[in-house]
Amino acid sequence: MEHRDGFDDRLRQARTQQGLDPKPDQGKGALPTGPWGIGFRAGVEVVSALVVGAALGFGLDRWLGTFPWLFLVFFVVGGAAGVLNIYRLFMPRPGTRP
User: Fold this and answer.
1) Number of neighbouring beta carbons within 10 Å of residue 72
2) H or E segment at 58?
3) What does the alpha-carbon distance between residue 51 and residue 74 come to, in Å, rounded to a whole number?
4) CB-CB contact of 78 with 51 (8 Å)
5) Which member of 21, 47, 68, 71 lies 3.0 to 4.6 Å from 57 by CB, making a disulfide possible if both were Cys?
6) pLDDT by residue (tens digit) across 54-78?
7) For the region Disordered, what residue ranges are annotated (predicted)?
C-alpha cells in the first residue's frame, strides 16, 4: 500500500500544479481570487474607507462645531486610504510567482 500512497501524493501534487485542484491553503476562509471576487473586494475597500472617513469627519464636526471643514478633510483622507488599499491589493506579494 505504501507504493499507492506515494502515487496518490504525486498525483495530488501534479493536479494542484496544473490548477485542476484547489491549492491546499485555499479553504473555506480563503480570500476570493476570481475576477468577480477581486472586483467586489476592491469596491468594498474604497466604499468602506470613504464611509469611515466621512463618519469620522461628520462626528468631529458636530462635536467641534466646524461643519463642513473636518467632514471634507476626512472624506478626502478616507478616499486616499481607499486608493492605498486598492494599490496594496494589486501589488504582488513577496514570495509569490506571477
Assistant:
1) 13
2) helix 35-64
3) 10
4) yes
5) 71
6) 999 999 999 999 999 999 999 999 9
7) 1-32
